[in-house]
Design goal:
Blueprint (H helix, E strand, L loop, with lengths): L1 E4 L7 H15 L4 E4 L6 H9 L3 E3 L10 E4 L6 H10 L2 E4 L3 H15 L3 E5 L5 H7 L6 E4 L2 H10 L8 E5 L5 H14 L3 E3 L5 H15 L3 E5 L5 H13 L3 E4 L7 H6 L2 E6 L5 H17 L7 H11 L8 E9 L3 E5 L5 E5 L11 H4 L5 E10 L4 E5 H19 L2 E10 L2 E6 L2 E6 H4 L14 E10 L4 E5 H19 L5 E10 L2 E5 L4 E5 H4 L16 E10 L4 E5 L7 H8 L5 E9 L3 E7 L2 E6 L20 E10 L4 E5 L1 H13 L1
Parallel strand pairs: 1-12, 2-3, 2-4, 4-5, 6-7, 6-8, 8-9, 10-11, 10-12, 15-17, 20-22, 25-27, 30-32
Antiparallel strand pairs: 13-14, 13-16, 14-15, 16-17, 18-19, 18-21, 19-20, 21-22, 23-24, 23-26, 24-25, 26-27, 28-29, 28-31, 29-30, 31-32
The structure holds iron/sulfur cluster.
């Protein structure tokens, strides 16, 4: 024995929505009235009545403070006006597909077109549609009635006609009637307003009935769509039963059947279908030949009612891409829309670069706009939810993740990782405190998650943690082969009054101020600045303390070497007086090297005090008379030049 439950069995979107609205109001403690039974299912109506829902025949039945719910069938314009007049609270649960028919009827009738409605004029939905017609209208339940109308009102053939259908109208009858319009009426605007939930349900029921030897249609006898299902199934399967609840289950027929098909009307609650299935299961268990396990029924049932996600996640297939939004088919009657801003976190991204028609996307439902019949969806929120799991895992595992810094905010930066915004405090954003954060903007950074607040979905990251690890690794590598004299190219990271700290590839060394220049300097900034690239070498190492002393000044720049090579004893040169004492004057020969002109060597004449003939800044010619490289002393003489000149003159 096989049992097949139609996938489309049970509540449709419009009915489900109406019931949800009522239940929500009850949960909020409201006193609820429905304008007529909320759905064509007595069981559901009784259940709601037990929770306090009352049925109003007209809006006037509702008192102030009570809430009136308009059911999915919709109402005529006149009733809407009356509700407004009375000023009563009202929740409109009219199905958006029905509202669409109202709009068509109102718009075309206002233009003077004659409205033809394929449907039962006594059905509340058709009553509502008629209530939006502002010109002549006619309704027909089948092609015979349509032909009668055309015979009775022959002028219709030449008039402008607008045709709509009750959402649950029989599809085959609709198709036949369209052929009549094509043949007879020349000026007809046709709107196929049959709800696809209905057409799908009918088509599926037809196929299922043709494959079954027992067909059960579960639903209210007053439900138009349930009745249509029954007739469709009866045509294909002689053993078709319409049952309202489990009490009507034809057990005798179930025992005999080999292939049982089950469908249900749009207003049949899942609980009733489940009850029927459970009872059938027990019955079948009692039949010796049964091969079907109860669990299969459960699975079938679950499968049949996987219609709407409860966790807000949904899959959709892209059917259209525009610069501002992406349209997706989510397997519902409503159109799924992803606004560009909900597609990606990147504000400069273009929709056509991110998705293409046919792509299947994982999405989050943000809002259902029942008036428009649309569902607002977000891809970026799904990505973010998925990304959040990655973030939480990264925090647990202390693993390194990457992200792009999108913002510099007060106190730190925001990095986007896996669609989740991670706050990185300034103290954790760079290797050392106080560094500028500007350079991080738009950069991809690696970091660890150091804190997660699940309730607020807040994550805090640390770039420094990763940098510290990197530095540690580099330090180990450095110490493994560091030796005095080894040269490095480094970057000046900071300056102090006593030296410059240089990053030599993940580890810092210091150039003492005395090592920066052969000349006397007051501050390292006279030679280097932060950010400068410098060539250095290791002068000394202290692995225990982790101290590295760096050398910077070069031998070839040593002024004593320059002096040795370019200013040997006997050289005559111009010098600048830089200081005066009682015993002589100090003069700069080259930068970093001063010599002494003894008072006795200033002139051939007797000089009492050097300042009597010399002044600081004055440039004079001297002869280098002696160099003591060990003591770093140089003797200069002005007089030697005068003597030489006198001797030359004498010789002449
Ligand atoms: S059958 Fe279609 S039109 Fe009617 S209430 Fe359900 S979803 Fe709306």
């Amino acid at each position: 024995m096989t049992v097949t439950v139609a996938k489309s069995a049970g509540f449709c979107f419009g009915v489900s929505r109406a019931v949800n609205i009522v239940e929500k109001l009850l949960d909020e403690g409201k006193c609820v009235y429905t304008l007529g039974p909320i759905i064509h299912n007595q069981h559901m109506v009784n259940e709601l009545a037990a929770r306090g829902v009352k049925i109003a025949d007209v809006p006037d039945d509702v008192k102030n403070g009570e809430t009136l719910v308009i059911r999915s069938h919709g109402i005529p314009e006149s009733v809407t006006d009356r509700i407004k007049e009375l000023g009563i609270k009202c929740e409109d649960a009219t199905c958006p597909f029905v509202l669409k028919i109202h709009r068509i009827a109102a718009e075309y009738s206002r233009c003077g077109k004659i409205i033809l409605i394929a449907g039962d004029e006594h059905h509340p939905e058709v009553q509502g549609i008629i209530g939006h017609c502002h010109s002549e209208y006619h309704s027909y339940q089948n092609c015979d009635e349509l032909e009668e109308i055309l015979k009775k009102f022959p002028y219709l053939k030449n008039k402008e006609i607008c045709v709509v259908a009750q959402t649950t109208f029989d599809i085959s009858e609709w198709k036949k009637s369209l052929k009549i319009f094509q043949k007879v009426c020349t000026n007809t605007k046709i709107f196929d307003t049959i709800c696809s939930a209905t057409s799908d349900r009918q088509s599926e029921a037809e196929v299922l009935a043709s494959q079954s030897d027992l067909m059960l249609v579960i639903g209210g006898r007053h439900s138009s769509n349930t009745n249509k299902l029954y007739h469709i199934c009866k045509d294909k399967c002689r053993e078709t039963y319409l049952i309202e609840s489990v009490t009507e289950l034809p057990l005798f027929a179930v025992r005999q059947a080999n292939r049982i098909g089950i469908t249900a009307g749009a207003s049949t609650p899942a609980s009733i279908i489940k009850e029927v299935l459970v009872t059938m299961t027990e019955e079948i268990k009692n039949v010796e030949e049964t091969k079907t396990e109860p669990s299969e029924f459960e699975a079938l049932l679950e499968e049949s009612f996987k219609n709407y996600n409860t966790d807000g996640r949904i899959k959709g297939v892209v059917v259209g891409v525009t610069p501002t939004e992406v349209r997706v088919d989510v397997g519902r009657k409503q159109t799924g829309i992803i606004p560009l801003a909900e597609l990606s976190d990147d504000p400069s991204a273009k929709a056509e670069d991110l998705v293409k028609v046919g792509d299947e996307l994982n999405l989050v439902i943000m809002k259902t706009n029942d008036q428009e019949g649309t569902i607002l969806l977000s891809k970026k929120r799904f990505d973010s939810q998925k990304g959040w799991d990655t973030i939480v895992k990264a925090e647990e595992e202390k693993s390194v993740i990457t992200g792009v810094v999108t913002e510099i905010v007060k106190g730190g930066v925001i990095a986007l990782s896996n669609g989740v915004k991670v706050f990185i405090p300034a103290s954790q954003a760079t290797a050392t405190r106080g560094e500028s954060l500007d350079g991080l903007l738009k950069q991809e950074v690696s970091f660890r998650i150091i804190e997660v607040t699940k309730q607020r979905r807040r994550a805090v990251g640390s770039i420094r943690s990763v940098l510290n690890d990197e530095r540690k690794k580099k330090a180990e590598e450095f110490w493994a082969d560091a030796e005095v004299g080894k040269k490095y190219t480094g970057t000046v990271k900071s300056l102090t009054s006593y030296g410059a700290f240089v990053d030599i590839g993940g580890i810092d060394g210091m150039i003492h101020i005395s090592e920066l220049s052969w000349n006397r300097i007051k501050h390292p900034s006279e030679v280097v600045n932060v950010g400068d690239t410098v060539e250095v070498y290791i002068k000394a190492l202290d692995p225990e303390k982790g101290k590295i002393s760096l050398g910077y000044k070069k031998d070839e720049d040593n002024p004593w070497e320059i002096l040795k090579n370019q200013y040997p004893e006997g050289t005559e040169c111009e010098v600048e007086i830089v200081g005066l004492t009682q015993f002589g004057a100090f003069a700069k020969i080259i930068p970093g090297i001063d010599g002494l002109i003894h008072v006795s060597q200033i002139s051939n004449e007797r000089v009492e005090k050097p300042e009597d003939v010399l002044s600081v800044g004055q440039k004079v010619k001297v002869k280098i008379t002696a160099i003591d490289f060990e003591q770093k002393r140089i003797s200069l003489s002005m007089k030697a030049l005068l003597t030489d000149t006198a001797e030359e003159e004498d010789a002449e």
